């Protein structure tokens, strides 16, 4: 394990508590890379004959066209999508016969990865791991804050996914910069806002946006916003938090933006290639939400579906959604690509997609959205949205992050802030205005 910058390892309680259940799902329908050292060791061990012989060296790997030390080959899969090393009891042949330490780094570290800032190493997790989603649903169904750890996560700590060097910086958005030493404080402050009690999740998310707006404003003054400046801005924000909350409570959603954002997100995802098994439910969700209809009919349908399937259960679902938002802040893929504001863009896009998929699942099953349905939606979104080509379609340099950011916030807050009584009244007005179109 390399030197830990700042000497602090931090993570979320969910990741700290998780242990592999041996379900074998991470050994199915993935293209898993193997580093060169592990590949060389595995080939030698397989050729040694000191094992039952079910897997042979010549049939275990596919070589990459442009191999690197960290991604030298991939594990071969069977026709059903399972890894050739997966035994019938869902345990790993490689692990069983040659030992954990001989396996590739990706397999040893999953479902965790890490990144480093000048003040800490952060251990993250992925909710493409179904048992981790179920643990979040059952035991960590509320917004989470960082905890410091001193042991575990050995393999994940070997190779940070990205690093901000001492005296380095990261983007807020655009040309505005944040000192690397302030990243931890900003993430911790967002988690603290999410954990405020007595306010709806929508209000807390809008407060997150207000806090980021202050950082953006400070970023325009500077060459970069330093750690001390962040502490000072946070102190003044805390003093004014009540007024910020009042403004958020008085805000109203915009269902036109909600419709536009939902249709745009699904359309963009549909244009990107995904593994077949992950993409199969996609057409069903689009049909359940009626996204192929004219925009005015889509808006009316989304309002109705939300009122019938989601809004009545919002109080029961907010905790799990808050936990999911915490997870996305800590495990953000956009943070190293675009910076702090795109990180929250990712949070909002993810929340919006989880809402849409959960509503589609509930509509298909003619039921309301419960915690199980929401957990299913979270797992599905992490499998699809965080498939690399899909994610890059949203967060490439050409993606227009500013407009996506605004639409994602507006759309997601529409869901979280919408009072069911107000929603029913707006649907009634829309039905009167739309006449027979409402049946579409």
Largest sheet: 5 strands, mixed
Helix content: 55-70%
> How many helix segments?
21
Q: Give the N-to-C terminal Cα separation.
A: 59 Å
Task: Explain what you see.
This protein is an alpha+beta fold and 440 residues long. The chain has four domains: 5-18 and 111-163, no CATH class; 25-108, no CATH class; 169-250, no CATH class; 255-439, no CATH class. Helices cover 55% and strands 8% of the residues. The protein has 21 helices and ten strands.
Keywords, separated by commas or semicolons:
disordered C terminus, 440 residues, globular, 21 helices, 4 domains, 55% helix, single chain, alpha+beta
Describe the secondary-structure layout:
Blueprint: E1 9-11, H1 13-17, E2 33-34, H2 36-48, E3 61-63, E4 73-75, H3 93-98, H4 105-109, E5 112-117, E6 120-125, H5 130-139, E7 147-148, H6 154-158, E8 162-163, E9 169-173, E10 176-179, H7 183-194, H8 201-219, H9 227-239, H10 241-250, H11 255-270, H12 276-279, H13 282-289, H14 295-310, H15 314-330, H16 334-338, H17 340-364, H18 371-385, H19 388-395, H20 401-417, H21 420-434
Parallel strand pairs: 1-6, 5-8
Antiparallel strand pairs: 1-7, 2-4, 3-4, 5-6, 9-10
Helix pairs in contact: 5-18, 7-9, 7-15, 8-10, 8-20, 11-14, 11-20, 13-17, 14-17, 14-21, 15-17, 15-18, 17-18, 17-20
